[in-house]
Design goal:
Strand order of the largest sheet: 2-3-1-4-8-7-5-6
Helix content: 25-40%
Bound molecules: S-adenosylmethionine
Shape: elongated
Order of helices and strands: EHEEHEHEHEEEHEHHEHEEHEHEEH
Oligomer: single chain
CATH topology of the largest domain: Rossmann fold
CATH architecture of the largest domain: 3-Layer(aba) Sandwich
Strand content: 15-25%
CATH superfamily of the largest domain: Vaccinia Virus protein VP39
CATH class of the largest domain: Alpha Beta
Distance between the termini: 60 Å
Largest sheet: 8 strands, mixed
Radius of gyration: 23 Å
Length: 383
């Protein structure tokens, strides 16, 4: 069957690689999604194992509609009793890019009307809507006149790994953090530092990656568990096989932050998944941080002007980051994600690689700096 894994802009390539890794066929990266072919086992594996997918969709009905009535009629042409019974509940998520259909919630309403009317006409009863916890979650994707209705096999978004207990301001989305670690080229062995780790998302995703730990292992329910063809035995087999592949390498992963509360939250997350021995945490400001190992990788998500540093001097702050990298982290590769590309220039290093990612709607640069022995001398020479 043809399936679609949704992701964020910039992560399509890593997601495609992940899909190939679990045995998906005809993998094709498109805009913020990857299309692929797979059977039920692949669908279950995708939900359990993909780090950079937000949800996995199974398209079931394609049509074109130029107005509300056509939309209603086309939805009604599909035999909904093949998908659900009248006793089950449904929810509809609209994704609309169209000049004809300008209100996405109205599209969802029309679609819901068509489905419930079909049941009422055939069976005299109608299924109800449950936005929070439906038996069947549907997605309607409408681009101009072209509509695709899909079954959402994931249910709750796959970024919810289940390790977050406390709250921290501006945490990265787990899918984005996993994507950053995978894009960075971290080899899962070299020391990894997040010196402004906040709630520790980058570190948690790095540990899971290094251990081959399935990101969906703690998720209690998936959309496909409410489907008519749910195969519990197959799901248990997929989970057992994935658990057997978890490894326990010795990791050198370090997280620090100037804020003690952030470190408390990060520690609590690590405890949730019993990763407390895999990450060394410390409450230290970056200005005073010293590396334990002479070589390694830094991945960091410093505060952005828009989000966290409105009143502070962002220029000085990014200058401090640059100085600290150049003076203390020689031998390291450093990746920095920020929406403030102007501020990033104050790091004073030439990026070796520049990637475009989105963090909660903010366009960000994810830049790689190579801090080698000559970096400092070169900078002094050119001043
Ligand atoms: C955008 S948040 C990082 C969020 C994190 N990636 C997460 O997923 O939760 C930026 C973090 O930088 C920390 N921070 C700000 N200035 C710092 C400094 N000088 N040294 C170390 N940490 C600092 C803040 O306390 C905050 O937790």
């Amino acid at each position: 069957m043809k399936l679609i894994a949704k992701t964020f802009h910039g992560l399509e390539g890593v997601l495609a690689e992940e899909l190939e890794g679990i045995g998906a066929k005809e993998v094709k990266a498109v805009n913020r999604a990857v299309e692929f072919e797979g059977d039920k086992e692949i669908l279950y594996k995708a939900n359990l194992q993909l780090r950079t997918a937000i949800r996995i969709l199974l398209p079931i009905h394609h049509f074109t509609a130029k107005n509300d009535q056509e939309l209603y009629d086309e939805v009604k042409k599909f035999d909904w009793s093949t998908i659900m019974s009248v006793h089950e509940t449904l929810a509809i998520d609209p994704v609309v890019f169209s000049e004809i259909f300008t209100h996405s919630q109205y599209v969802a309403l029309k679609m819901k009307d068509a489905i419930v009317d079909q049941f009422r006409e055939k069976e005299g009863k109608r299924p109800s809507v449950d936005v929070e916890n439906p038996s069947i979650r549907l997605v309607i994707h409408l681009a101009k006149e072209k509509a695709t209705i899909s079954l959402d096999s994931s249910g709750d978004s796959l970024h919810k790994r289940g390790y977050r207990t406390g709250h921290h301001k501006a945490p990265l989305n787990e899918v984005l953090a996993a994507g950053m670690v995978m894009l960075s080229g971290w080899d899962k062995k070299m020391p990894l530092i997040d010196p402004m780790c906040g709630s520790g998302t980058i570190l948690m995703e790095a540990v899971m990656l290094a251990k081959n730990y399935p990101p969906g292992l703690h998720k209690k329910s998936f959309g496909f568990m409410g489907w008519k063809d749910y195969d519990k035995k197959l799901w248990n087999k997929v989970v057992d096989e994935a658990k057997e592949k978890i490894t326990h390498p010795r990791l050198r992963i370090f997280g620090s932050d100037a804020n003690i509360k952030a470190i408390d939250v990060a520690r609590e997350s690590a405890l949730q998944f019993r990763f407390n021995r895999d990450i060394s945490f410390s409450v230290t400001s970056f200005e005073r941080l010293e590396p334990v190992y002479p070589k390694g990788m830094i991945i960091m998500n410093p505060p952005y002007g828009e989000r966290l540093m409105k009143d502070k001097d962002i220029v000085d702050f990014y200058r401090m980051i640059g100085n600290q990298l150049k003076q203390t982290f020689i031998g390291y590769d450093a990746w920095v994600i920020t929406s403030d590309k102007e501020a990033l220039k104050n790091v004073g290093l030439k990026p070796l690689q520049k990637l475009k990612l989105f963090n909660g709607g903010l366009e960000c640069g994810f830049h790689k700096f190579n801090i080698y022995d000559g970096t400092m001398k070169k900078i002094i020479k050119f001043r």
